[in-house]
Amino acid sequence: MTVRTRADLASLPSYVPGRTIPGAIKLASNEVSAGPLPSVVQAIADAATAINRYPDSGSTELTARLADKLGVPADHLALGCGSVTLCQQLVQATCTENDEVLFAWRSFEAYPIVTHVAGAKQIRVPLTDGHVHDLDAMAAAITPNTRMVFVCNPNNPTGTALRTEEIEAFIAKVPDDVLVVLDEAYKEFVDDAHVPDGVELAKQLWAAGRDNVAVLRTFSKAYGLAGLRIGYAVAPPAVADVLRKVYVPFSVNALAQVAAMASLDAEDELMVRCRAIVAERIRVRGELLALGYEVPETQANFVWLPLGERTAEFNEHCLEHKVVVRAFVGEGARVTIGEPEENDAFLAAARAFSV
Ligand code: PMP
């Protein structure tokens, strides 16, 4: 006899992480290439002496720090083991079988997975030809079964970002019992003043009585803690409360909490790094455009090359040049902005590929 597992999981593809290849430059997972700050490493080392104890399951101190930084009461926050886990918690907290979760496609690959696992139904709305969320089509796709909408801003993998008035107009069309989640994993790399700070926007909407907007943030990207797994949701208290209910106890570990607080202490230094990455993003995109590549305007720490059928060939070509990019076969390649010399290696590969 074999164990009976859920039959519907047979068709579920596993999440495919960016590859690490020894000796190659990894520009495949939107990580920050620079290593952790010494102050953060020291805080982790100091906290390591107490890992025989369970972590603070409520992340109390970190929650208070974030509440202070963001200007929201602590009951508006929920910590998670990476924001991807919060995506899962949000679907679990809003959906039962056959409820619908709406998102643009292509967008973050975890959205379909967490939706399927929760037994909910995914509704994918294609991006526009300009690789941007088609908010009109998304609004039109809402049904009485829609419980949640993910809006990834800037969007992974295209880097494109929505403006404040576009998001406001969209939210105005969403019934107020449907949760809109602004996933801001790449927020710190935004330099266009027309792109909102989702938390500030959410605060205004809450004040106006719209209690159906939540924001996801992560310490994995700009704060350089991808390996420690920590992110957070800023949400109306009723939503934050159910997020805490579906939280797997102790899943935000002690070292992650300490590292997040040390990173908040070093925020100025980390934001200087982000500005340098943005400058590199502008340089890389400019060079790619000059080489004849199509590269949508990006507000994240990566560029998107919609190479269509040539994506697999481009991926192989980059691997030959010892650069690992993220290929979505048949669609395009996403390339993380790394340190200047890593970007130079990628640009050399891009130059040697005839577009
Ligand atoms: N949202 C988006 C849009 C992402 O691209 C990612 C990471 N690839 C995440 C959420 C999850 O990040 P983490 O779980 O590391 O916080």
TrEMBL record:
Class of the enzyme per the UniProt entry, highest EC level: transferase
GO terms for MF: aromatic-amino-acid transaminase activity; histidinol-phosphate transaminase activity; pyridoxal phosphate binding
Entry annotated with the keyword Cell division: no
Modification N6-(pyridoxal phosphate)lysine occurs at: 221
Residues in Aminotransferase class I/classII large domain copies: 25-348
E.C. code: 2.6.1.57
Subunit structure: Homodimer.
Annotated PANTHER family: HISTIDINOL-PHOSPHATE AMINOTRANSFERASE, HISTIDINOL-PHOSPHATE AMINOTRANSFERASE 2
Entry protein name: Aromatic amino acid aminotransferase
Species of provenance: Lentzea fradiae
